[in-house]
Design a protein that fits this description.
The protein is an alpha/beta fold and 141 residues long. The chain has 4 helices and 8 strands, in the order αβββαββββααβ. The longest helix has 7 residues.
Length: 141
């Protein structure tokens, strides 16, 4: 895939009026990587890029590495917190909600559409819901 500028990926940018990186909610769900190599990032619903720090965490969360967009100016996107190494997706028994577990919090993802948009991997098995209930709630999308 050819390298892109962030402005090529978003139709109506206000980046010219700012100094420094800004969030791009229009890129939510995109997986990006600098053309110079380095980390892969996921753009969250608020438009911040979040670093995936290792291959194991990437494999825990995503269905494929296809579709990662090489970007020339990745630093123009504001950076949010990195995914904690070992982050996972989990689903409680008798519960349709999938949870992203990272940084000591659980982020509920209740929609198949959101799972698909973010290329998240559906958990192969379930865990007792009582285990997930002890992880503090946060909200993904």
């Amino acid at each position: 895939m050819n390298a892109k500028k962030v402005s090529d990926l978003v139709s109506n940018l206000d980046a010219a009026a700012t100094n420094g990186p800004i969030p791009y909610p229009a890129l939510a769900g995109w997986r990006l990587k600098s053309v110079n190599g380095g980390l892969t990032y996921l753009v969250n619903p608020q438009g911040y890029r979040q670093a995936i720090l290792d291959d194991t965490t990437y494999a825990n969360l995503f269905t494929t590495s296809e579709g990662i967009v090489p970007v020339l100016d990745i630093d123009s996107i504001a950076e949010g917190p990195s995914f904690t190494p070992g982050s996972i997706l989990a689903r409680g028994d008798n519960n349709a909600t999938v949870y992203l577990i990272t940084d000591g919090k659980r982020w509920g993802i209740s929609s198949v559409a959101v799972m698909t948009q973010y290329h998240f991997k559906f958990p192969d098995s379930t865990v007792p819901m009582i285990l997930l209930d002890f992880i503090p709630n946060a909200f993904w999308a």
